[in-house]
């Protein structure tokens, strides 16, 4: 295996991708690096225009190749690339998924190597300005606007996505294909009274991709469907990687207390609720949420009071890290 260099045909290259998440002003943000075609091509050897959105700047997750002689571990290589590209150190990090589908990199179609990327999820609190101009925090609903239900059903679903999906279903070549498409649309997008699952972020994006309803699936095609594009595309398959991370995090906050990796040392219960809502894309019932937190014993009162603008003073709490040793079911379930 030739890793991290200029591989020969039939070889495999290992890449490292980071999805870095923070909560900023009650919004879920992801750290992206804005590239010009030149800098992105330089970062990703022999990249072709077929992998890029057709504009002047391309948003990508921090990424780079794994160099066995330079990087002691995959994680150390990831941290090195993140610091170099964003000037940001990451704390909590976990391996997300390994992306190795055939054709995910344009070089493969030209006889180049299979590119296998190991994705990581990092949760951070320090979101101060970075010295690198092209490293920017963006709201993750900037890429998936149909995932934010905090203000009710997203307009893009009713106006654009659902009608387009019904057209795609109706255009099936066989009855079996029509039934299969309809079933998938019901499960992922909640058609016809089917419940919406907040964790199916990747499945929804992949269905839109298959239906030719996202920009990445239309690049290079001669006759793209005339849909109203919403959601910012990303270079390569980075929006798919981000969708995987969002779905994973939404599921994980229900059974593990990872949400506290995004919280400051002390916080109010309302601030905690807003963070959970930002991640899940849904609004929560205030009293039910507080009863759940109290029942699980995840936080304790610090005895301090925070004066909130326009409201009553609120008690400050901290996460009881000792509960990690007490039991396993420690998430903040919100459904």
From TrEMBL:
It comes from the Bacteria. Residues 259-319 form the NrtR DNA-binding winged helix domain. InterPro entries: NMN_biosyn, NUDIX_hydrolase-like_dom_sf, WH-like_DNA-bd_sf, WH_DNA-bd_sf, WHD_NrtR. This is NrtR DNA-binding winged helix domain-containing protein. It comes from Kiloniella laminariae.
């Amino acid at each position: 295996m030739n890793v991290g260099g200029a591989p020969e045909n039939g070889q495999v290259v290992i890449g490292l991708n980071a999805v870095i998440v923070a909560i900023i002003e009650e919004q879920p943000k992801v750290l992206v690096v804005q590239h010009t075609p030149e800098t992105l091509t330089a970062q990703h050897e022999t990249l072709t225009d077929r992998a890029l959105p057709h504009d002047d700047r391309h948003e990508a997750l921090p990424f780079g190749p794994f160099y066995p002689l330079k990087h002691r571990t995959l994680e150390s290589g990831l941290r090195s690339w993140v610091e170099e590209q964003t000037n940001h150190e990451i704390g909590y990090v976990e391996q997300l998924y390994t992306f190795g589908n055939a054709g995910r990199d344009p070089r493969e179609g030209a006889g180049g190597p299979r590119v296998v990327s190991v994705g990581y999820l990092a949760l951070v609190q320090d979101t101060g300005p970075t010295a690198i101009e092209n490293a920017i925090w963006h709201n993750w609903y900037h890429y998936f606007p149909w995932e934010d239900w905090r203000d009710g059903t997203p307009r893009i679903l009713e106006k654009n996505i659902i009608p387009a999906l019904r057209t795609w279903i109706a255009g099936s070549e066989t009855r079996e294909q029509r039934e299969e498409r309809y079933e998938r649309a019901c499960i992922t997008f909640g058609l016809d009274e089917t419940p919406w699952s907040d964790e199916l972020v990747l499945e929804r994006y992949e269905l839109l991709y298959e239906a030719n309803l996202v920009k990445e699936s239309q690049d290079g095609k001669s006759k793209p469907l005339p849909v109203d594009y919403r959601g910012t595309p990303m270079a390569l398959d980075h929006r798919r990687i981000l969708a995987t991370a969002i779905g994973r995090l939404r599921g994980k906050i229900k059974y593990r207390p990872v949400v506290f990796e995004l919280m400051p040392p002390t916080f109010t219960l309302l601030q905690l609720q807003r963070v959970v809502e930002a991640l899940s894309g849904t609004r929560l019932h205030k009293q039910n949420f507080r009863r759940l937190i109290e029942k699980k014993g995840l936080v304790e009162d610090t005895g301090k009071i925070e004066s909130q603008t326009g409201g009553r003073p609120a008690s400050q709490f901290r996460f009881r890290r000792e509960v990690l040793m007490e039991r396993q079911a420690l998430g903040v379930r919100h459904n």
